Amino acid sequence: MWIPSFISYCVHYGWALVKAFPGDLKFIFLSTLPITAFTILLGFINGLILGPWYHGITIEHLDLLVNNMIKVKAYEWFSGPDGVNPFYTPQAPYHVQQLHDPLEWTRTVGMKRPSDWSTNNVGKLASFRDLYRVRRRYSDDPSWHRWIYLSTSADPMSDISDYNPWDKAFSDLLEYRDKHEPLGRSNFNYIACPKNFLCSLWSISGPALIHLTNEPITRNATQERSRKPILDPVSVRVFELPLTEPVIPGSFPTYFEQMRSITASNSTYWTTQMKYSNFDQVRGRSLKVLKGVSEKHPKTYGMLSKIEDKWTRFLAAEETGFIFVPRLVSFAAGAIPSYFGSKYWWQLQQWRKGRQVDKLQEGNDSQSARDAAVKDPVAHQLQLFLDSLSDDDKQKFGKTYRGGALLDKIENGLAKNEWNTQEDVIKKVEDALRR
Q1: Cα separation of 376 and 379, whole Å?
Q2: pLDDT by residue (tens digit) across 312-340?
Q3: Domain residue limits, the chain
């Protein structure tokens, strides 16, 4: 295998580097080496693993944002006579608003950014920072709570083979709230996490519940007389399911009871959870990656990981600077070059692909409008929809007023061949960044 030979190379290269250290630094390093040897080696390998992984998820964020926006644009063609996109209306199975549009999710759940807010980073569009809730001016209870359920299913409760008990528990929770809670299900939303930009950027794969609440600010007499909107900052907490600790001491409830206990209007359990930290979420996700590598290579990386853990515990040094500093430095030594190496390699691949596309397009300027339409992602999806309908399906579909209008709309749109989805998506993203 390549892993033992690679480890041997790292040890040889590292020893050559140590010999180049100044005298005092070399003495300190060598005197602590019996304690830190396994930690240094493991930290360096972890950096080599996680550097390319982290670059990969940053690229994934961009791809998911574009794909989610294209999907939203495609569904605009299925709008009814009222012009409302079906993505913005509550539908089965939960009959609460599903969050599809990564640019409009804050408005959908009832929040906003400051009026002077802007950014050049598309990742900030999903950020939990700089979120505010407009408080009703005259209210006996200024508090506000919102919940977002994150499902691990692409289409919850639609496929028996993809059955998830948490999806069923969430459905039961909504029915229970309709009967026993004043707000019912009105303060709930959900997201299907597979291939979703928001879940990916939040580093939450689900199942999970996200809790959003305002923190009412104290206003002085002058502010009370002001007619400006009252903006309360919003805090966010994440409850990944199943819970690691029971809500009720001494008992561990069912899936439904866990959800009900967390979200009940008279419950204060949400206050026991720390506020959302993107660093902690990414760290937790990276630990899962390393665990997967350990399970895949139990006789090499997995064995090294176990030896390092047992050795530091045996020396009672796992929480000391003797371990923390070498672990951090060795991790950075592996992660930084591997991250930028992956980045530049990806950029080189993109440049090559661009060159190939340019060569294919040379001498083909007279490409038909039909071919241009087929290349447009929204037009492609609409054409696939029409192709999936048989003649009988089209006839039955066209007999209804709405079905006939929809078919005419799609067929006429494809016939015109005036497609610029890419420009529309870019403009929407740019507008959102300046919002």
Answers
A1: 5
A2: 888 777 777 677 888 888 899 889 999 99
A3: 2-66+288-349, 90-276, 365-435
